[in-house]
Amino acid sequence: MLTSLQNPLVKQMRKLHRARERHQQQVFLLEGTNLIEAACLADRQFSTVCYTADWQGRYPHLWEQVGHRSQRLEEVSPEVLRAIATTVEPDGVVATIARATTPVPVFSSLGLVLETIQDPGNLGTMIRTSAAAGADGLLLSSDSVDPDHPKVLRASAGLWFQTPIATCDNLVAEVSRYRQQGMQVIATLPTATQTYWQLDLRQPSLILLGNEGAGLSPDLAALAHQEVTIPLSPGVESLNVAIAAALLLYEAKRQRM
Question: Where do the CATH 3.30.1330.30 domains begin and end in the chain?
């Protein structure tokens, strides 16, 4: 059992709290039973799995699955697990897994394009909602929060592994390419006069959503065939971007049903 916070493995895993280290090591953290189960269901392999004796006793079948999928298994003390986890009270297991483990989205029916999204909880919620609504996946600008940020993974409720996600250095070029292929491009803008439910979302569509504070950049918004707004009651300035995404994705789903 690992009990020392000075152990090299502990130090290495703690570094993965930072995006730069995740990029350098080309691995990221998975925390909690739910995400470990989701990774197993997606047939993923683990680099390292750290678990407590209590967790092993509570989940013997999952522990056995994890053992067959791991390069390194380490029983650790609860104190060590708390040190390597990003949550205050981890539930007994933290693993590392190789980066770039989600398929790249190929948009043909319904896609979500996100520009400069900064809040990991918002991104994780949009991943979960995209999967639930049956979207093809998500495309992010490279200046958005890391898709493998620990909070993104937790907020996705395990659906991270089922949802194609990719980052892109030039969203304008990518959206232009899909536009040339015949997909309808929709910009969500507070200045639009058309509400989102007035739009025909039965055709192949890309929904563009921008930064939580600044919204869409002019260059990306200019590619839209349609501009839509979400009507708000007086005194309400804006909606959370994840809520906006859910409204549009489910309106598309409703129309297609």
Answer: 8-98
Average pLDDT over residues 83-106: 87
How far apart are the C-alpha atoms of 174 and 209, rounded to whole Å? Answer: 15
Q: Which residues contact 128 (CB under 8 A, 6 or more apart)?
A: 155, 156, 157, 159
> What is the rounded CA–CA span in Å between residue 95 and residue 27?
10
CATH 3.40.1280.10 intervals, the chain = 110-256
Q: Is 65 exposed, middle or buried (0-12, 13-18, 19+ CB in 10 A)?
A: middle
pLDDT surpassing 90 at residue 205: yes
CATH superfamily of 110-256: SPOUT methyltransferase, trefoil knot domain (3.40.1280.10)
Domain 8-98, architecture per CATH: 2-Layer Sandwich (3.30)
d(CA 98, CA 144): 20
Query: Would you state the structure tokens that stand for residue 204, as one six-digit string?
Result: 């192949």
Amino acid of residue 142: S
CB of 113 within 8 A of CB of 171?
yes
CB-CB contact of 165 with 129 (8 Å): no
Token pair listed for 88:
């205050």
Neighbours of 163 (CB within 10 A): 23
The token duo for 147 is 């898709």
Those residues whose C-beta lies under 8 Å from the C-beta of residue 232, and which sit 6 or more positions away, are 238, 239
Encode pLDDT of 106-154 as tens digits: 999 999 999 999 999 999 999 999 999 999 999 999 999 999 999 999 9
In this structure, the chain runs to a length of 257
